[in-house]
Amino acid sequence: MQVNSKLAKAVRFALIGGVATAAYSAPALSAEQEQQTANSAVERISITGSRIIREGAVAPTPVTVISGEELLSTGVTNIGEALNQLPALGNTYSLANSGRYIGTAGANLLDLRTMGTDRTLVLVNGKRHVASSAGSSSVDVNTIPSVWVEKVEVITGGASAIYGADAVTGVVNFILKKDIVGLDISAIKGQADDSNFGKDRISLSYGTDINDGRGNIAFAAEYSAQDRLRAFDRDQTRTSFTSLKNTDRPKDANGNYIDSNNPSDPDKYFLPNGGHYRISNAGTFFLDGWKTFNPDGTIGDVYIGPKVDGNYCVDCDFTNLRQFEDLQPEFKRYNLNLKSNYQLNDDMNLYFEAKYVNSQASNYSQPAFFFGNKLNSVKIDNPYLDPNLVALMKNNKDTDGNPQPLDSIVINRFMADLGQRIEDDTRETQRYVLGLEGVLADDWDYDLYATYGQTDLERVNKNNLIYANYQNALDAVMLDGNIVCRSETARAEGCVPVNIFGAGNPSQEAIDYINTTSVGNAVIKQTVLGGTITNSGLFELPAGYVGLSTGVEYRKEESETKEPKNAGGTFFNALGEDKGDFDVKEVFAEVSIPLLADLPLIRQLDMDLAVRFADYSTIGNATTWKAGLSWEINDELRMRSTYAEAIRAPNISELFGAPSQTYFSVKDSCRIDNLNTLADSATRRKNCAAMGVPADFNDEYDAKRIEGKSSGNRELKPEESTSYTVGLIYQPEFIEGLSMTLDYWNIKIDDAISSIGAQTIVDRCLDSTSGINNQYCELITRDPSSHQITLIQSHALNVASLEAAGVDLDLAYKTDILGGDFSANLIATHLIKRRNFSFQDDPSDYEELAGTLGYADWQANLTLNYKYENWLSYWRTRFVNDVSLYTDKDLALNANPSSNMQYDDYFISDVALGYQFDSGITLKFGPNSTAKCDTLQYQAANVISLKTIAGCLKSKHFFGR
């Protein structure tokens, strides 16, 4: 075997083959040590991104490797928070924004390349983990025992053939420490300087060798928690913003404003101190102008002021919806772990893992509300009514001035005094792994394993308004000098009248009668049986040894959701009960072939091939494969590339999801106000007319959310993806301690499975040049009389395709400065393209998302570490480039939609200083999230974590369920 494949060279390139992070890596070998190693027997090392144990080789797949110690050094209480700050991962489901969907509060799901959490495969020690969200494959990484994490591998390209389906965009593999010896106690306490928000984490780990080192057993317990943080708890997040029409424009002959389509002359101005004025916590109604109720029930005028546009006004009596927004959920997590291994003989090791995790999160949302809803009509004989309002109702006149007394009036109201809606989500996760690993005939390594995981979810929805009870309580009359419910039957069933005229007036007895608590449950089960066998030196070729790894795996996934029986007829969404399962049988193989060695400009050239055959109970047979090349040019430079094709089968909710009620915030693109802002509205006007919408339609019904229905789709086909990567690893000898990796990656998914957003459905329906006979218009229902959208269906579809491409850069440097150890690491991702192809019949029609909200074209992390004797210091800065709020396709239709066109770039820094005592105790202190964010406006949680820039957020305006 050649000297260049000895362990020294293997280690050198292995350290920089993923993230070339000097701070995370083992110390470099001295020249003397390298020579000693070269003269010793060849040692096999495990390389990330492959099952084959290599001798002097590095897998061609791009891998980012981060130590568990480094992840926790930022002071986070959950490891997912640190991972979500990596440039390659999107903040789709961070802890801060996890409550935006029903049943997901407290979950932290990883989204590699921001192409969907279901396309990122999360593994623990190379094995699958039970899902945390019903019907999906997504894993809540908060369930990983952070105290035992040795390193985390983030793998891009060709991962499906190695690790299995769901790895379309890549794999995040948590490698846990194998043998735990001794006691480790860690505690973190954090406190905000401008609120009562606090975070805590305490962990304990203890392990010991048994039977003279033949075995090891370890136990770990971890507790983490954080307080609820409301938008109103911070001065920076109290301010409410809204958009008003630009009226400083000339008008045409028809009285319509003339749109210059110039960005300096925006259609709408984004302004502070504004919002809805036609709805309030006290109750708002229109009668001789807009009026509201004072705390004592008397009526007063709503001050609208001169800055008004439809339902919105600025510097007026508006309702600040930020009062209902949370920046961080209340969260608690208890994590218990047990692991052991025992060497039965020199060639056989038995291992076992068990864990139990209980996580609890509370998400607060808007209370029940009524907006233009006749269910909230109050009759004139209601004894709680202000006499002045009764007089107004009696004296009401029609538009011609004729008497038109009213016997009832509709009140628009947030029922905040009945209580904000609260969702308490509790997840209990248990997972067991039993395995036998060892060596056969000196050359074959084997691993036989069985895993079982189960997640039990309980969702408790509090302050859920019962419509029937509310209407009974609202319909109050005076009887024998007492205010009671009008319905005798309702009185017999415990009805308590409610006074909604003025904030805070409902009695506790009425609140208890009106509200209920609804409890839903779900259970997710996963069973995996598998085995692998590996020979790293199957036979020798002139350039080195051929390595082979092959195996089989059986997996069954089950998911069932049960919804509360008392949710019908309440403000809570009517959810369907999902139930489904599938199993898959797989056989896979991976081979590493040395092609050339010791030639000019070819120190070593290896080829990697992998293939996986799968038989799904749902879609039938599927094949994934990959090919890769690793070309070591010399001691300093190596190049690598991969090409892969993969298939992702639909998950349980995508296939079997039952229809569920939801509500969408959309703008009706057929409204004349919206059409008039477009540079070219011909296609939309034509399609609106084809749907029966009048040319002058301008109903403001879309100020509130529109009912929708989401569901699975049993007609789904599997996704098909192709990906390729090209990269280099460079470690110049003339700069000791410097290393660099640079990788280009490209992922394209055809027949991508996706539930399209409601606004996207509306716009794609109307933008189709082939008319309204397309898959998006089929999802929209309009009332034939009012022409309002009454229902939007958002079920899973095979959309045309998704495509993403970018470059990952990693620079690392390590040296001695002033007698101490200094290390610097820069990880950056440049997103070149992120395209959604909308129409199956026109794959050339795409929307470019790179550089827009949620898809910043540049993201980077810079980490600096310095250690001098017992002193430790740490600095980490995260950068996200500015993003546009509109795609190029949006701006082609309308170049000047708003004065708020982009969010500026920002920097967020964490700083820490510590001291390591000789006793083994280390103390660290420092502020987190020192942010430059003065120019930021409202940032959606999928762009940056609300945890870090909560102080920079401003609010949009919509209300709904």
From TrEMBL:
N-terminal signal peptide: 1-22
InterPro entries assigned: Beta-barrel_TonB, Beta-barrel_TonB_sf, Plug_dom, Plug_dom_sf, TonB-dep_rcpt-like
GO cellular component assignments: cell outer membrane
Sequence segments annotated as region (Disordered): 240-265
Record's keyword annotation contains Membrane: yes
SUPFAM superfamilies: Porins (SSF56935)
Protein name from the UniProt record: TonB-dependent receptor
Main location: membrane
Record bears the keyword Calcium: no
Keywords associated with the record: Cell outer membrane, Membrane, Receptor, Signal, TonB box, Transmembrane, Transmembrane beta strand, Transport
Bilayer topology term: Multi-pass membrane protein
Family: Belongs to the TonB-dependent receptor family.
UniProt organism field: Shewanella chilikensis
Domain TonB-dependent receptor-like beta-barrel as annotated: residue spans: 419-926
Domain of life: Bacteria
Residue span(s) of domain TonB-dependent receptor plug: 59-171
A Pfam family annotated for this UniProt entry: Plug
Annotated compartments: Cell outer membrane
